[in-house]
Amino acid sequence: MIKEPGKELTPNQTQTHPSVQLIILIAGTILSLIIFGLLAFGIIWVIYGSKTLTDVGSFNLTNKNTIPGLWILQIVSTTIPLFVVPVLFAKFIVSDTSNYLKVNFHFPSILLLLVFSIMLFSSPVMEVLVNINQKLTLPAPLKGLEDIMRAMEQQAQKATNAMLTMNSFGSMLFAVFVVGLLTAIAEEFLFRGCLQTIFVKWTGNTHAAIWITAIAFSAFHMEFFSFLPRVALGVFFGYFVAWSGSVWTGVWAHFLNNGSAVVITYLYQHKAISLNPDNQHVFNYGAYVFSLIFILILLYIYRNIALKKPMFNF
């Protein structure tokens, strides 16, 4: 396997083996999700009462308090622990925040423009992956499991649609802030910050670490029928961070992906655009080919600028 060190490949600064670090990080994440999940339910119960708490758990949208309850659940039970865990892990477990969080801004600003362009022109490729993923089915003996997963995802989509029913510009800004920015920071700190660094140190190979982390990132969301496009996003985010040496390039890409989905949904709801964000048959084959070639070129340019390599070798 070809090894191509990125800026994050630095000698280990801790005696703890990466496998032990992984176990600690996973255990800490699970424990935090449980604790903050219970806290979120407690807050909902105190503010809205037991009826709303039950309705939030069952996604009963006839209760007007269910949607604010879902937002509390999202922020307190998911966003906050996913941010707290990597910060505490980097600071107190491995005592190496610079390598495990990568919160520096030491990268050419043009990389942010390249990230924007890559995310913009990757839409056709993502559409292909979504359509392929939707056609995947589990073997016949697992048909029951597939039905359960589809039902779970439909319920989750129902909750998401409810949370993203934005009646005002202010509600759209709030959704962009929470779903776009806060989620991007928390998940990138955990996955491209800590988890990817652990796998780089364990495997000694940046490419392997990026792909393993991307698969873990997609699996974490527990959405089988959007697994492939989320893996692709994780790969993009992973290379952005590995080549730049900064988690903020991944945060920027993650924010663009989530935030643009919120804005497009808002514009569609208010009939400012006719493009349905749920439509996965927007582009043609020519657009698919152009998208793939163009983003590969942009990734090549991004890599060379980030790693300060010559653009062309003759």
Question: How would you sum up this structure, described in words?
Answer:
- By secondary structure, the protein is an all-alpha fold.
- It has a domain at 98-306.
- The protein is 74% helix and 0% strand.
- The protein is built from 12 helices and no strands.
- Helix 8 packs across helix 9 (206-220).
- The longest helix is centred in the middle third of the chain and has 35 residues, at 169-203.
- The radius of gyration is 20 Å and the shape is globular.
- The two termini are 24 Å apart.
- The relative contact order is 0.14.
Please outline the major beta sheet: none
Shape annotation: globular
| Helix/strand structural class | mainly alpha
Q: Helix proportion of residues, in percent?
A: over 70%
Radius of gyration: 20 Å
Strand content: under 5%
The total of beta strands comes to 0
Output mean pLDDT: 92
H/I helix tally: 12
Order of helices and strands: HHHHHHHHHHHH
The first-to-last residue Cα distance is 24 Å
Give the uncertain stretches in residue-range form.
Answer: 1-5, 8-14
What are the main properties of this structure?
disordered N terminus; 314 residues; mainly alpha
Give a topology summary.
Elements: H1 18-48, H2 50-57, H3 66-93, H4 97-101, H5 110-121, H6 123-135, H7 143-163, H8 169-203, H9 206-220, H10 227-244, H11 247-269, H12 285-306
Helix pairs in contact: 1-2, 1-3, 1-8, 2-3, 3-8, 5-11, 5-12, 6-10, 6-12, 8-9, 8-10, 8-11, 9-10, 10-11
